[in-house]
Amino acid sequence: MSVTRTGEPGAPAGADPRRWWGLVIIALAQLMVVLDATIVNIALPSAQRDLGMSDANRQWVITAYTLAFGGLLLLGGRIADLVGRKRTFVIGLIGFAAASALGGAATSSGMLFGARALQGVFAAVLAPSALSLLTTTFTDPKERGKAFGIYGALAGSGSAIGFIAGGLLTEYLNWRWCLYVNIPIAAVAVFGAYALLHDRPGHTGARLDVPGVLLGCGGLVAIVYGFSEAQPRGWTDSLVLALFAVGLAMLAAFVWWQSRAPSPLLPLHIVKDRNRAGCFLTMALAVIGMFGMFLFMTYYLQVILGYSPVKTGMAFLPLTAAIIVGSTQISARLMNHVPPRALMVPGAVLAASGMAFFTQLTVDSSYTTELLPGLLLMGLGMGLIFMPVFATATAGVAPQDSGVTSATVNTSQQVGGSIGTALLNTIATTASATYIAAHLRNPAQKALIVREGVVHGYTVAIWWATAIMLLAGLTAGLMVTTKAPKHVPVDAPVPESV
To answer: Could you tell me the end-to-end alpha-carbon distance of the chain, in angstroms, rounded to an integer?
Structure first.
């Protein structure tokens, strides 16, 4: 990546000559946050043995992180707007590193769960400030395309990179390094932030919307928690239904309060905008499909095909490469010439066609002919979706609202991931149980029938994931109607209100 200096051909007037190195720091922090949602997946069996976790409780290693992260993102975004994005970025990095050190040194399951929740809290502060720093650093439409291409590639491929890193660290060091690895990354990012990133001062006159925090974050936590409990307990469990009811009631009250609050946590004009709302919904639906696929592919490769953690991680490499190509080489080059939906709709169709490959899996499928084509198609499709979603959702937002807008994009991603994991896992386990009950006639064939039943469950759930991905494309096509970005003068003043 070459650094363009102010005054060189193509450089915007008054642009920071080190802005591309600043992007490296922002991207590094974002990568750390995204991959931490999956890096411990492959390490989980080792951590479970080490700390004596029960099968019922082991899910909290994943859920504690996503619950705190998804539930507190709106608060993190508003804090970034109030006290300054660079300051909250650095606080988030330091806190995330400290929580990672605590988790790596965990001597009990409770200590590890607490550390993962703490990681989620600081990730909720870090992620919105990273995206809003990117939005305020790159104001020239052409440069925004390149910057968001790189950011979108990391947001889309971070989960797959987490599987690779988790496999390597678990196999060659031990599971604790899946947490310790964040410390040097955060240290580099903190030094880089002080040296390279600039920010407008926070809006110190504004006040934090405490009722909005309690209603919005409480509602999101209840819903994300409900989805996490739906998988082990079942959708009709009284606790699950109560969590959904409480979550929806709190979010309804949140919307009512935001229309009356003097300093709202989430100004409603942000989500009332048709294009922005379309981006939020497209992101949530696309991530439901993607996270379900990650879950099934990980188990399929390790449990059914017998891959090692490292080999499983490496199997995701083509997907990661395809996402990067789709974001940086296709989306970033076309974004200024075509409307966002002209990228998002074909992206969803490509990703859905890739998923359709996985519906044909058997207990002895070939990686090269039956998995690789699907991974490549899905990666290209996700690369076409993520980048225009991030760029369109954050375009034209007033500086004082950029943090909370960025948080809303991240919230749709996290809630989509939670829903995808719980919903598709429940569909898969139900379909597997039905298949095994219908086919298990000869006890001598039990092992084979169980394996076939598990794979059948995966394929049924992947059909649902494929349909949801197509729904993401339909949503983008109908709701995201904005035209291709215009080349506005780079020295034009930034609007202070939408």
So the answer is: 33
Q: How far is 132 from 199, CA to CA, in rounded Å?
A: 10
Task: Give the separation between CA 460 and CA 89, rounded to whole angstroms.
Answer: 41
Structure tokens at 149: 């291409």
Both structure tokens of 321: 């490469």
Confidence of residue 485 (pLDDT cuts 50, 70, 90): low
120 has pLDDT over 80: yes
Task: Determine the pLDDT at residue 440.
Answer: 78
Three-state DSSP class for residue 96? helix
Judge whether 257 and 215 are in contact, CB under 8 Å: yes
Three-state secondary structure readout of 330-395 = HHHHHCCCCCCHHHHHHHHHHHHHHHHHHCCCCCCCCHHHHHHHHHHHHHHHHHHHHHHHHHHHHC
Amino acid 199: pLDDT: 67
Report the mean per-residue pLDDT for the chain.
82
Task: Give the residue-averaged pLDDT of 6-34.
Answer: 70
Cα 137–138–144 angle (5° rounding)? Answer: 150
Q: Average pLDDT in the 450-467 region?
A: 91
Q: Please count the other Cβ atoms lying within 10 Å of the Cβ belonging to residue 140.
A: 19
Give buried/exposed letters for 211-245 (b at 16+ CB in 10 A, else e): ebbbbbbbbbbbbbbbbbbbbbeebeeeebeebbe
List C-alpha distances in Å: 471 to 18, 288, 414, 466: 40, 11, 18, 9
Report residue 392 as tokens.
Answer: 């369109």
* DSSP per-residue codes, 144-165: HHHHHHHHHHHHHHHHHHHHHH
What is the CATH T-level fold of the domain 19-199+265-479, as seen in this structure? Growth Hormone; Chain: A; (1.20.1250)
* Token pair 């979108």 in the structure block, residue: 152
* Confidence at 491, pLDDT banded by 50, 70, 90: very low
